[in-house]
């Protein structure tokens, strides 16, 4: 079943941003490797990255081996995000996602973004890629620490006034699944993002491959 077929019965589609719409996995790895090199830590390849990337982000940083007595977790997050944003506009959108976004818009359904990116940078990215007209709501978080976006999801659901049964969340990580479960909505995970299909399959059975 295609993504559009899975979405046919829904009125509100909530999209994750990084790794779901924006193809930024390689850029995230490159950015982190620059930070790891400054502290003489082992670099990442894509396979290891997709196995250890997780939320809350602090657990991912723990796995990478950062010493917070040398540089605090909060400062490392700012270092990463600032460096990430310097090069993010060289990334591209997933080719197969853009037609889906446009088709859903034509169907006059509600589309939203719910992201663990901070609101200011999320707005900048969506503006750069000229996607603002496709989304009725864009919800990021208030800081750069990659915390749970569940509370923002609850605010989004309340604002939309669309029933939970008519809502679906699309993401690329187990955190997206956890958020959807907490919100009480159906979840579809994509296999082209920040966590590998093998990781996703351990927790969910509705996974869509690129098409």
Describe this structure in words.
By secondary structure, this protein is α/β, with parallel strands linked by helices. The chain is built from ten helices and eight strands. It has two domains: 3-24 and 93-208, Rossmann fold, CATH 3.40.50; 25-90. It is 45% helix and 16% strand. The strands form two sheets. Strands 5-4-1-6-7-8 form a six-stranded parallel β-sheet, sandwiched between helices. β4, α7 (119-128) and β5 (137-141) form a beta-alpha-beta unit. α8 (150-160) packs across α9. The longest helix is centred in the middle third of the chain and has 15 residues, at 73-87. It is globular, with a radius of gyration of 17 Å. The chain starts with a helix and ends with a strand. The mean pLDDT is 95.
Summed up, what is this model?
The chain has ten helices and eight strands.
Tags for this model:
Rossmann fold; two-stranded antiparallel sheet; 2 domains; single chain; six-stranded parallel sheet; alpha/beta; 10 helices; 211 residues
Number of domain units: 2
H/E element sequence: HEEHHHHEHEHEHEHEHE
- Rg over C-alpha atoms, rounded to the nearest angstrom: 17 Å
Distance between the termini: 11 Å
The parts where pLDDT drops under 50 for at least 5 residues are none
Oligomer: single chain
Mean pLDDT across all residues, rounded? 95
Count all strands and give the number.
8
List the helices and strands and how they pair.
Blueprint: H1 3-7, E1 12-15, E2 22-23, H2 25-38, H3 46-52, H4 57-64, H5 73-87, E3 92-93, H6 97-106, E4 110-118, H7 119-128, E5 137-141, H8 150-160, E6 167-171, H9 174-183, E7 186-190, H10 197-201, E8 207-208
Parallel strand pairs: 1-4, 1-6, 4-5, 6-7, 7-8
Antiparallel strand pairs: 2-3
Helix pairs in contact: 2-5, 8-9
